Structures are given as structure tokens and as C-alpha cells.
């Protein structure tokens, strides 16, 4: 398996008035293609901050991140969008769908923004079919269940074929059954499409989907288990 992401001595410090808060402290981590990794921990443990730094949304205070051998922490703000476009897709808890667009159009708009040509139409259809929504392509978000909305969001993230998928609490707004359906899709992406999938979650009910489970507390990694639980 090829190494997708390497984080070395990664630290993020926020200053609040006279105080400093260590959101993430001295994290060392290696993430590989073909694996699905779970970041577990309570709110405030640093999961989302770590995910945001890996995704080049948030800059670390110190330390380094390499994405397929490319050092991203030294890049300026003009270079980072190209890294995100080339390597990273995001799946968020809140779905972030355009309410006036159908499921199909929500996927298509991302492809158009990425500069996709005539193949965009078929690619959008293929991605929605892959997540089990071939019969919901023309539905607006208001007519979809929470689980279906999350699957549209996943289809949209897959449409660009990025090798790294970062999911922040993707099951947070879903019941247990729909949450597991979403996790089945994410695991399938890692196993069958060789994606590096990283999921930040506090939902221990989905722990059995992960190749690697990482426990975070107070900005540090306090435990790591390899192998599906």
C-alpha cells in the first residue's frame, strides 16, 4: 500500500486572550491508500482540527504534512487549492447540499467547477448509482432522507476521484441503520478503489468498519488499534 499522508510532530495552538490552547500536540501519523482510519474521541479532543490540517484547510503551528510526498505545510495560500483539488475530497456531517438543486445537479456542479467536460454527466450518474441513488437523481434535498442526503454528499466527493477522502462525523445526523449504510460505502471505497479514507467520529457503534482505530484525547493520540474490531 502506498503511503498517502505523513504527519510529523504536528501541533496546532490557538491563542485566546492571554491563554494558549493546544488543540493538537505533537502528532505523528502515517496514512495509507486502501485503508479506512477512524479518529475517535470526545468533543474537543482534536479530531476535527487534525482532519482540517490534513485537508489543508487549517495550517499547523508547527510540524509538517506530506501528501503523496509533497510537503504541504510550506506552501503559500495560492498553492493549497491545487493540492485540495488534486488529492482531497471532504464529507461533512451537515451534507452541505444546494437546496434548489437535485441530487444529480448537486454532483454535477462540483464536476463543472473542477473543469470536467462532456464526461461530467455520465460520471455524476455513475457516482449516484454507486451509492444506491439511481432512483433519486431528480429529487431535491428536501425530498430525501438524512441517509440519502449523506449518500449524495459522498457521491459528490467521489466525483472528482481524489485519492484521499476526509469525513467529519459523517454518521452524526443519522440513525444507526443509515449510519452503517454510509460506513459500508466508505469502507468499500477504501477496499475496492484504493482510497485513503479518514473518518473523525465519536460514534463507537461503527468501530468495526475501520482498519485502524485511533483514540484522541486533549489533542494527543492516546491509543491505536490495527485490524477491524
TrEMBL record:
Lineage: superkingdom: Bacteria
The keyword Nucleotide-binding is assigned to this record: yes
A Pfam family: ABC_tran
Domain ABC transporter: 5-229
Keywords: ATP-binding, Nucleotide-binding, Transport
Family membership: Belongs to the ABC transporter superfamily. Macrolide exporter (TC 3.A.1.122) family.
Protein name as annotated: ABC transporter domain-containing protein
Organism field: Candidatus Sulfobium mesophilum
